[in-house]
Amino acid sequence: MIPRGAAMRYPQLLVHDADGWVARQLAELAEESRWLLKEPKSRDAVLALVRDLRPTVLFLRVDPSDEKHPGLAILTDVLRSNPDAAIVAVSDVKLPDADRAAWTALLFDLGARYVLFPPLTGPILEDLASGLMAAAIRRVVGVESPPRPAESPIDLASEEAHA
Questions:
Q1: What gap in Å lies between CA 39 and CA 46, rounded to an integer?
Q2: 30, 130 contact by CB (below 8 A)
Q3: Using one digit for the tens of pLDDT, what is the confidence trace for 80-135?
Q4: Are 78 and 87 contacting, i.e. CB atoms less than 8 angstroms apart?
Q5: Which CATH architecture fits 9-117?
Q6: Could you say which of 15, 93, 98, 106 would form a disulfide bridge with 23 (CB–CB 3.0 to 4.6 Å)?
Q7: Which pTM does this prediction carry?
Q8: Could you tell me the CA-to-CA distances from 155 to 21, 80, 148, 149 in Å, in that order?
């Protein structure tokens, strides 16, 4: 956590995706929110950017059908260096339900916060990015969620409750 009073740097969305589809879906949100949108192409570039002291959300493309796909290794390396990293694992591979459930469980076990399989839509990606970034910003600046107001208990014996 950054010490209180330290200046917060612009939040960043990182997208490790070979074809850029996820980044294109998030570009407008990043621009409107004044977040940096970076597309690191290598494992080392991802790791360097995740170590940066700024609120960060990583969208990581994984391909369960390819044993040599770097997504799983990047996921484990990122979480080893930054256990609090907010990572969304995204796959565009259509799998049978049983295989999708098994891969989802594995990706959760490895530390992904969310796992997405087709159908993928821009609004879903934007909602995840917004929610995870809000939490990352609160964590970096040391602000906890606002306390919930105490609810007044209802006295069922009171005359107002029966009116």
A1: 8
A2: no
A3: 988 888 999 999 999 999 999 999 999 999 999 999 999 889 999 999 999 999 99
A4: yes
A5: 3-Layer(aba) Sandwich (3.40)
A6: 15
A7: 0.80
A8: 55, 51, 21, 18
Q: What tokens does 134 get? A: 């809000």
Q: Which residues of 100-138 are buried (b: 16+ CB within 10 A; e: fewer)?
A: beebbebbeebbbbbbbbeeeeeeebbebbeebbebbee
150 Cβ contact partners less than 8 Å away, ≥ 6 residues apart? none
CB-CB contact of 59 with 125 (8 Å): yes
What's the pLDDT tens digit per position in 3-27? 444 445 789 999 999 889 999 999 9
Model pLDDT, residue 52: 82
